[in-house]
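tokens incoming
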């Protein structure tokens, strides 16, 4: 499951790592539904629901971890009906195509910098700050390459995420403007695939060269998607530029 040497291991998400009662038995299976531990719809002010709204911003899974994830897998168990609020689709951006479309001068400018990725930065963008005691110490910010070279295809791709706070060594405002501009570029319609979910669908993607986001839906109906992710075997900083 990983094109580099070594075997894949599954990542346990932040909510499962909290412990306590869960709706799903296996901690390796992430519960990305709008259902609580009893299988009931979460309330509008539910803390976990508000935290999960951060997944509607373009992101790369767990890029805030020193060793990020490789594969992402989502399986649809229940999907809400179509509505004016949205259908709960998931959008994927091809970061290889986005890199290829950059002007040569911009490719040269972004090839070597690193960005600091922080889950608390991404959640702060939507105003979520209700983290549990000890979470900030458990998930410190990590540095990742701004451009990655895929170990299998040898193609370069942008490595962006809502978790990317700033460029290491740059003035913070300057680095944030660069990340903002790159995100706008990478999520242009010609780079994006939108998946409309059907019950039973299983979608697998490579987080090394893909960014994604969930779309709004009618929260009066269950949306039950279950996720698994496999960890890489090293930091992006160890990769060849």
């Amino acid at each position: 499951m990983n094109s580099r040497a070594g075997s894949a291991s599954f990542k346990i998400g932040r909510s499962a790592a909290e412990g306590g009662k869960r709706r799903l038995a296996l901690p390796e299976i992430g519960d990305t539904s709008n259902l609580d531990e009893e299988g009931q719809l979460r309330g509008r002010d539910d803390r976990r629901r508000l935290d999960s709204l951060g997944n509607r911003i373009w992101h790369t899974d767990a890029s805030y971890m020193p060793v990020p994830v490789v594969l992402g897998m989502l399986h649809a168990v229940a999907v809400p009906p179509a509505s004016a609020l949205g259908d709960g689709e998931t959008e994927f951006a091809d970061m290889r195509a986005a890199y290829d479309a950059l002007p040569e001068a911009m490719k040269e400018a972004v090839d070597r910098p690193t960005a600091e990725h922080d889950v608390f930065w991404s959640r702060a963008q939507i105003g979520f700050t209700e983290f549990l005691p000890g979470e900030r110490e458990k998930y410190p910010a990590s540095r990742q390459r701004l451009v990655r070279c895929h170990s299998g295809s040898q193609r370069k791709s942008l490595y962006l995420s809502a978790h990317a706070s700033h460029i290491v060594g740059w003035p913070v405002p300057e680095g944030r403007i660069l990340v903002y501009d790159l995100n706008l570029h990478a999520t242009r319609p010609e780079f994006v695939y939108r998946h409309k979910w059907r019950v039973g669908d299983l979608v697998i993607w490579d987080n090394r060269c893909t960014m994604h986001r969930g779309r709004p839906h009618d929260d009066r109906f269950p949306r039950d998607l279950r996720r698994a992710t496999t960890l890489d075997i090293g930091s992006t900083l160890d990769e060849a530029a």
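note: The domain at 46-226 is CATH 3.60.130.10 (Double-stranded beta-helix).
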